[in-house]
Amino acid sequence: MEQLTISFVIPSYNEAGNIANVMKAIADEMMHQQMKYEVLFVDDGSTDGTMIEIRDIQYTYPEAEYVSFTRNFGKEAAIIAGLQHAKGQAVILMDADLQHPPSLISELLKGFEEGYDQVIAKRNRKGDSHLRSLLSSTYYRFVNKAIDVQLNDGEGDFRLLSRRAVDSLLLLSEGNRFSKGLYAWIGLEQKTITYENVTRQLGETKWSFSKLLNYAIDGIVSFNTKPLRLCLYIGLATLTSALIYIFVTLVGIFLHGVAVPGYFTTISAVLFLGGVQLLSLGIIGEYIGRIYNETKKRPHYLVQQTSIESKREGRATI
Ligand code: UDP
Ligand code: MG
């Protein structure tokens, strides 16, 4: 029987201090498995010594491979590059900072051997700030009402994907990628395992508040056009109440004459309507921006260098 090959895909942005650790941790885990494997580091335009570290460990670990970008294209681009370059019958996506415990690898592989196409490692929120946990749980409750696929808090990119799942994800060629939604969109047989949240040991998180907010908006608008419909409803409701207000006031004027010049009401009406209009314009702009980006058909990333020669042509960009 042909031996299974597993590809680990590790998006790495300024992770010089973590590369050797994550490689060693994976190698230690894989020692107990009768499988061939490769560890594919996707260097997302790091400006520290990440690339030097990766080349360095290649001397010790022939399983280490890399694709490096010409600049920082973001984690989503790094993931798609990893999926495109991975050769394995299954891919395990893992962060470089060891927040995705390598000790779960055997469980992920077990799920794969049981025949699941996606084995999802779900984390609890231990150690996260109360504010962040509260914001995320509210967000997921809201987003699941608004969009057509189900997203679950704590289920991120840490997962095993079968070849079939990888190929399905690669069929989705949209420019604005929101992977969490895409994993849910492809469906297939899934199994979830849970683990305790681990806090980052080395380096810093790359998620600033504004990046998180952008991610949250992507989650909603990448998946449907319901916000546009909501805009329409808000607009209709505002218009109706404005008409009722005008009618009632006019009747009042006819019956009792003008009482006090309505300075306050005028200003508040202007502000309110202005707000609604801006909101609607903003939402419409979101979609138009997306259409604009899609029509440009830009590749998700550009490759600076890669250790995987055979797949370099044609597949590096989609
Ligand atoms: N990452 C990346 N490109 C980026 C930002 C992050 O490839 O622009 C990688 C990063 O090196 C890490 C993973 O994505 O391996 C998760 O990033 P981080 O730990 O900053 O996110 P958090 O764990 O705080 O959600
Ligand atoms: Mg992290």
From TrEMBL:
Q: Where are the transmembrane segments?
A: 230-255, 267-288
Under SUPFAM superfamilies, the record lists: Nucleotide-diphospho-sugar transferases (SSF53448)
- Enzyme class, first EC level, given as a word: transferase
Q: Tell me which InterPro entries the record gives.
A: Glyco_trans_2-like, Glycosyltransferase_2, Nucleotide-diphossugar_trans
Enzyme Commission no: 2.4.-.-
A Gene Ontology cellular component where this protein is annotated is: plasma membrane
* Any single Pfam family the record assigns to this protein: Glycos_transf_2
Provide the GO MF annotations for this entry: glycosyltransferase activity
* Glycosyltransferase 2-like domain residues: 7-168
| Sorted UniProt keywords | Glycosyltransferase, Membrane, Transferase, Transmembrane, Transmembrane helix
This chain's protein is named Glycosyltransferase family 2 protein
From what organism does this protein derive?
Sporosarcina thermotolerans
